[in-house]
Amino acid sequence: MTASQPKTMESVGKECTELKHQYEDCFNQWYTERYLKGDYTPQCQALFDKYRQCVMKTLQEKNLIGTIDAARKELGSDFKP
Amino acid sequence: MVKVYQHTFNYDHPWSLVTVAYWLRYPNPFASHVLSTDVIERTVDPTTGVLHTTRLILKRGLVPRWAQGLMKSNEAYILEESDIDPQTGTMVSVTRNITQKRVAYIEETQTLRRHPDDPERTQVKLEARFLSNLGWGLTSKIEAFCQRRFAKSSTRSRLGMSYILERLRETSKFPAAPWRPAPASSL
């Protein structure tokens, strides 16, 4: 264990990290307080859309959309950016 | 040529807590090779409750140092697709690298299941498939490396999960409140 151990995980796009943490905080709360207690009504969608938009922009810049799409086709699941 | 490995063990924590730890498992002191994680897709079926998640993970150190010259970088993108079925108490997660596949393709399936005899425990099954298409006699060397690394990385991932599980238990708020990363001083 070193002092440099990060406390939080970054996003693939540095500028998306803050949005990622906002979304994940919301999700973790929903997951423990609602989902695991049997309430499956989704929440956090607005935060997710904002975060995902940022990530998709980064993935487009890194030319990764096609790679992800191809990988998912192998499994039969569709990826829609 | 495909090599397949498998092993099973238990976590001494209830399934629901283990699934929370699964979402929170990065960062941890045993995963310094993980550079970023992102949820790129997530859906929940309102009737069955099945939660489907796709995450993109960037990791360092896919191949041994001697093989790094064969690659532009030693980083690889990993796609993680998981399904949680809260009715049956099952989580299945499949991870595989989607870049650097020619050098080494590693697919891991992790199944987390509520222990049938003890609700305080969770059964874990890890399966991995390795495949390399390098040729030049390097394929078997890479596959042997992957085999050795599987034992090491599954230990590391288990230690990482146990570390997070202990932190979750310490907060003793679960499941009443969300978990927050502990301050560095208490690690």
Short description:
The complex is a heterodimer of chains A (81) and B (187). With 81 residues, chain A is mainly α.
Structure notes:
In chain A, 56% of the residues lie in helices and 0% in strands. In chain A, helix 1 (17-33) packs antiparallel against helix 2 (45-61). Chain A is an all-alpha fold. Chain B is α+β, with helices and mostly antiparallel strands and 187 residues long. Chain B has one domain (2-170): Alpha-D-Glucose-1,6-Bisphosphate, Chain A, domain 4 (2-Layer Sandwich), CATH 3.30.530.20. Chain B is 23% helix and 37% strand. Chain B has two helices and seven strands, in the order E-H-E-E-E-E-E-E-H. Chain B has a seven-stranded antiparallel beta sheet. The model of chain B is unreliable at 175-187 (pLDDT under 50). Chains A and B meet through helix 1, helix 2 and helix 3 of A and helix 1, strand 2, strand 3 and strand 4 of B.
Features:
heterodimer, A: 81 residues, mainly alpha, 3 helices, globular, disordered N terminus, B: 187 residues, alpha+beta, Alpha-D-Glucose-1,6-Bisphosphate, Chain A, domain 4, seven-stranded antiparallel β-sheet, 7 strands, disordered C terminus, MDM35_apoptosis (chain A), disulfide bond (chain A)
Q: Estimate the helix proportion of chain B, in percent.
A: 10-25%
Distance between the termini of chain A: 38 Å
CATH fold annotation of chain B: Alpha-D-Glucose-1,6-Bisphosphate, Chain A, domain 4
Largest sheet of chain B: 7 strands, antiparallel
Radius of gyration of chain A over all CA atoms, rounded: 15 Å
Average pLDDT for all residues of chain B: 85
Spans of at least 5 consecutive residues with low confidence of chain A: 1-5
Continuous helix count of chain B: 2
SSE class of chain A: mainly alpha
Q: Give the proportion of residues in helices of chain A.
A: 55-70%
Per DSSP E runs of 2 or more residues, the count of β-strands of chain A stands at 0
Q: Largest contact between protein chains?
A: A-B, 44 and 45 residues
Helical segment count of chain A: 3
Whole-number count of domains of chain B: 1
What structural category characterises the helix and strand content of chain B? alpha+beta
Q: Please give the radius of gyration of chain B in angstroms.
A: 17 Å
Instruction: Give start-end ranges of low-pLDDT stretches of chain B.
Output: 175-187
Net shape of chain A: globular
H/E series of chain A: HHH
State the CATH superfamily name of chain B: START domain
InterPro entries (chain B): PRELI/MSF1_dom (IPR006797), Slowmo/Ups (IPR037365)
Protein name (chain B): PRELI/MSF1 domain-containing protein
GO cellular component, one term (chain B): mitochondrial intermembrane space
Organism (chain B): Dimargaris verticillata
